[in-house]
Amino acid sequence: MATPIIFLILAIFVLILSALLFLCKIKPCCECEICKGYLSTSWTLEFKNLCDWYSHLFKKSPTGTIHVHVLGNVITANPKNVEYMLKTKFENFPKGRQFATILGDLLGRGIFAVDGELWKLQRKMASLELGSVSIRSYAFDTVGGEIRNRLIPLLESNNNDTVLDLQDVFRRFSFDSICKFSFGMDPGCLKLSLPVSDFQVAFDLASKLSAERAMTASPLVWKIKRALNIGSEKKLKEVIKMVDILSEEMISHKRKNDFSSQNDLLSRFMRNINDDKLLRDIVISFLLAGRDTVASALTTFFWLLSQHPEVKDEIRAESTRVMGKTEKEKLASFEEIRKMHYLTAALHESIRLFPPVQFDSKFCQEDDTLPDGTFVAKGTRVTYHPYAMGRMESIWGQDCLEFRPERWLQDGVFKPQCPFKYPVFQGGLRVCLGKDLAIVEMKSVALALIRQFDFQVVAKEQTPRFMPGLTATVRGGLPVVVQERQQQ
Fold first, then answer.
1. Residue 59 sits in a domain of what CATH number?
2. Which end is more exposed in the chain, N or C (fewer Cβ atoms within 10 Å of the end residue's Cβ)?
């Protein structure tokens, strides 16, 4: 009995020692206002979110770049720097071993955690699959079925004074949809009873705990916890094992049956890859990217609509022009969705202000100098910040804080912006391959709900506060009261 106690005391001692060593290391290294503000969290006195404080700092910076020395991080909101990192000097700014170490236990060798030849191989395969007409048709049909058979019936069943968390609904919807698309599996999270899915719970917790690694004061802390198998690292190991088991079962089931005619992403990759572990890593990466980002974008979009009912009215008017005066329950076809330029503009404008991935980091491989003159030493973490970039007057003009879909329209037609001033889908060689699929999914969901329901957001005057994580999740969700819209 004494041995486990001694082991635990030793583990605690090592953790405290590593934390003290880290604090001793950072304390004398910088007395600048940014580092003091970060370490003392004094920014919370004025800003609700860390990303809002960063936005404030970028506006004060002549170059749009700041240094958080205690984190060894150069952070930029300068489009020229973003283009340099993602395109001009792409090879010198990989994801890096540090990133792979943080997320490697969950993502393995998946496309979002690797560089070099393995990344190029997966990128090429994913590009061929996601660009095919058949996979786009399969994705559109999958989303449409989930909207028609589950999302709308769920909202109809809550068509009263009951408060419903719309963020939770969108997370369930997107998890069902992406699991069907990626695995050909239906977790049934959006059934009327709102059941708890073991796979969803395990996946969510694995994502959350993996993200917390990046926010730990020193990587030594979580690495020691992992080595000793204690605390959050013990739990992370447990939930990743659950994800692994369920993934292995799905792959094994497909191998025993004829997957050659199935259209889900896993079946398509299985035709060319025999390594089951790599298959698991690839599909888990797509699951992570396709689930949380869509739910996050839809959540903040509907919050913005509650602030701007005129945008909602214009979306309804556009749908009538495109679809005619049909029943509000009718779902738009793919061609009709494509013709709705104002809806496309409204979604892009929403994501400009509230990108699902608020920042993204690379690691400098060799000493370099960014276009704004910032020197970056080898091994430095370099972060570009889409959330802050959407709030820069130098990029979007004096009305940058306004929700104005019209900025995306030219003679009524949607006009994309430069990806390096709007890097919410990245840009250059790592531009998001699922961008078009995600936009169509979000348009399909938004249009179906706006046409059929009215949403009264509870405490809509409260600006969203975000929880720490890989994607932007609103703290407390988005509580709404749903009402059936009267046909006009």
1. 1.10.630.10
2. N
